[in-house]
What does this fold into?
Amino acid sequence: MGKVFLVGAGPGDPDLLTVKALRLLQFANVVLHDSLVSQEILALISPHAQLIDVGKRRGFRLLSQHDINSLLVASASSDEIVVRLKGGDPMLFGRAAEEILALREASIDFEIVPGISAAFGAAAVAKISLTDRRVASSVLFTTFSRSADARALASFSLTPETTVVIYMPGPQYNEVSQWLLDAGFSPDMPCQVISKASQRDQSSHATTLTGLATLAPLPAPAIVLVGRVAATLCDPATLSAWHEAASGSAHVATLPS
It folds into this structure.
């Protein structure tokens, strides 16, 4: 019986891989990878390893999660080192919980190798600190879904001191903008969209929630950072105004279902 490693590939730059992740990619017998793992990272995998693309592209899933779980179990039954390679960190929006359960039920040994989450990669690219003792005391990591059931679960308490990081915003930024405006955020709340953070073709756009509604979608994977911390990209006068607003506001908002 082999061992499965749930490995975080980070945001895309191979230099941001952990040493352990790189070592596993070079010695793996089988690698099941997501579609958004960069080609530069895939090129580091041993040429003798079997590569299996189990990713999802624009709503089309090559394999169901049940199929992926079965592949992991079957691969570990015949191969020594099996890597499940996920973009970012496997424990954040990576469906790791479902794969962990399947491995436990099959009594297969596994290990988790964390990676740099897309949120931290995006914040680094934008040169934005997600927290700032002057304007942001908490961070909310969430996804945006157009499913009524999924959105009903996203009922989080927010304050103006919350930085919101939205994974997988999809191609309709106007819906994301309206979602946050309905939550009580100001229309001029700063935000930043970062596409393909840390990769050669990365791009970003600084705007406000009002401007986000008309922004053309950036290529996936993209992250939307929303909050007063994004005002650090503004001119000094605007930044000062946001600091003053932060010290005098006590408004509490809730994302609607």
Observations:
- The CA atoms of residues 26 and 47 lie 8 Å apart.
- Confidence is low (pLDDT under 50) at residues 249-257.
